[in-house]
Amino acid sequence: MTKPVILVTNDDGIMAPGIRNLIHFMMPLGEVVVVAPDKPQSGTGHAVTTSNPLRLERILKDYPPLEYSCSGTPVDCVKIAVNKILKRKPDLIVSGINHGSNSSINVIYSGTMSAAIEGAMENIPSIGFSLLDFSFDADFVSAKKYVISIAKNVLKHGLPKGTCLNVNIPAVKENELKGVKVCRQARANWEENFDHRQDPSGKDYYWLTGEFKLHENNNETDEWALSKNYISVVPVQFDFTAHKVIPEIKSWNFNA
Amino acid sequence: MTKPVILVTNDDGIMAPGIRNLIHFMMPLGEVVVVAPDKPQSGTGHAVTTSNPLRLERILKDYPPLEYSCSGTPVDCVKIAVNKILKRKPDLIVSGINHGSNSSINVIYSGTMSAAIEGAMENIPSIGFSLLDFSFDADFVSAKKYVISIAKNVLKHGLPKGTCLNVNIPAVKENELKGVKVCRQARANWEENFDHRQDPSGKDYYWLTGEFKLHENNNETDEWALSKNYISVVPVQFDFTAHKVIPEIKSWNFNA
Q1: What domain range is A127 assigned to?
Q2: Which of A31, A108, B161, B199 is most buried (CB neighbours < 10 A)?
Q3: Where are the beta strands (DSSP E) in B71-134?
Q4: According to the model, what pLDDT value does residue A1 have?
Q5: Which pTM value belongs to this model?
Q6: CATH code of the domain containing A121
Q7: What ipTM was predicted for this assembly?
């Protein structure tokens, strides 16, 4: 049996501790290939680079895994890996481990998850992993066994067409983790605040800041699971159609 | 009765003919405020700017509408307009008119639609408009009456919580437009191709190119409607959860 090919990417950049840990977790499971951004790309959403060309740099030519840094976004990394670098379609794409949460509405801003969603769009089983700790020296090892177990499950079962997984991990010690909960995206939003400043020449500028506002505490949501020290697993789809709403809009008069 | 406040934005930049036309279409409907990117931001997806500060420039101080160019993404424009510039929540956000299609899977890459989705996330009725013509001198006027009719309908009825509209317009003459079809996002993807070149110093670079591949021809889809010269209206949601898939993933064993 040939080993599965596992593509690893992220949005914090190829030298972030989160992806370095994820590479080590994946190496026993298959042949790992890394194609990740050459610089941090947090909050890039599903951006693609079409106005500039992409650059690839081969890193560490003499040891596995095969690693490339790419000048583009996480979505660019998946596209160029699948269509240019890899000789065959990967069996699994893992993105992360992100430094910081991508639960709830954060999925929409997330470069980590955009890579996983792009993988699903290319019909490749894909997972985005995120740890609820923004710091550079976050502890990624506590959740190692669950990260591996989730990846093994996806390698074994595949994923339903048109979906990928959004996995978030509480930032607690290994013995405090309660296990895995499959759940849905909680309803929440960000309340923005703009920090208004003046540069040395007196011109205005604004820093985007904000506060996360959770609108429910339902035990079927990722936020609830995380608050109870469970690892949350949300299946995510790229059909954005609000199917239930179609009949209502159909009743409008567009000739008025 | 006070006039509705209408926020206009886009992803092609504040000087693109698409937004200049949209501003003129909206001015009879309410008090128009424009906050749009100072440069093209196509394909930015739902990107936000957090590593750099944002700059705002007030344009045309002496005539309506109130216009600002912003150094950020379409999502940044909505956030700073709603939270910093406008004195009250707008009654409507319109984004576009995009130069080029945002139908089907293009919704996920689209800066035009990310502005509308961000509006929905802030509980503001929001519409993204796109014309199926990439060219600078595209004919935006043929669809004027439908753009106005759709905006009036949304002002009158509002939109169901958690949704916005993705409107695409065929690039045909006014008398060839057959009307409006409310539909769903067609299943399709992009098959990428990387145009591999070398720069003058002999280093490799890659241009992302691709071909749109449609996987169905169902008459309930936006692609079908557009091919028949209908304007397509797809309600879009930001709950990305693949609800139907949850039971299957729940049956997996994460302790193996």
Answers
A1: 5-186+218-239
A2: A108
A3: 92-99, 126-131
A4: 67
A5: 0.93
A6: 3.40.1210.10
A7: 0.89
